[in-house]
């Protein structure tokens, strides 16, 4: 990176950080610090900004003191740069985006007007996530006239050289019953190579307007619609990769020679060397 300005170096470094595969951002961060080899305050602040953006966009989770459930870091729960709130426990907290340690925990008062519906949706979504995601976490926010749901689940398997993350975001308009969602899946496989899957799908669902007399029923209907949409996406994704594995990838493979045996390139090299020696003699 010699010859580049601080801004140019940070732009390159931040692009690496923001593209970090699931579960590997700390490794990328450590490598970038070595590459920059500079304790300049501008570098430190610039990398911190990128880490903050990564944690928020990727729905990184933290754990609050004396609380078992994971808390999602998202823009919907962001109070300011490093200050967030957990809608489930009604607590605000400060997070260190490098270590992901949580400090300065204090009560956070919810909006009394929207809290009954938000709480009902949260209960239904929490049950759905617990049933369908092995290590899933969810958060349900009241965002003005809408209810926003964030869902994330991570599967890290570095011993077998792969990691993966599922993220989905759903925005419910209670008055109309309209639900808009985005599902994102990112998988990194790095055994003797570097292969990433990035899949994104936007979805729109028409549901019933909220029933103010039975909020639990409305919340259950929203959860059911989201469950159906996510199951359909996952089924379609599985089918596409079966097609890739059984047909597309086979078409890319190099055909065997007429002998129907793989070529032993070491032997061919030896034959060539032997022939050259024979010619010289």
UniProtKB/TrEMBL annotation:
The record ties this protein, via Gene3D superfamilies, to: F-actin capping protein, alpha subunit, F-actin capping protein, beta subunit
Function of the protein: F-actin-capping proteins bind in a Ca(2+)-independent manner to the fast growing ends of actin filaments (barbed end) thereby blocking the exchange of subunits at these ends. Unlike other capping proteins (such as gelsolin and severin), these proteins do not sever actin filaments.
Recorded GO MF terms: actin filament binding
Q: From which organism does this entry originate?
A: Gigaspora rosea
Q: Which GO terms describe its biological process?
A: actin cytoskeleton organization; barbed-end actin filament capping
What's the subunit arrangement here? Answer: Heterodimer of an alpha and a beta subunit.
For this UniProt record, the keywords arranged alphabetically read as follows: Actin capping, Actin-binding
Coiled coil residues, start to end: none
Q: What is this protein called?
A: F-actin-capping protein subunit alpha
Give the record's family classification. Belongs to the F-actin-capping protein alpha subunit family.
May I have one GO cellular component term?
Answer: cortical cytoskeleton
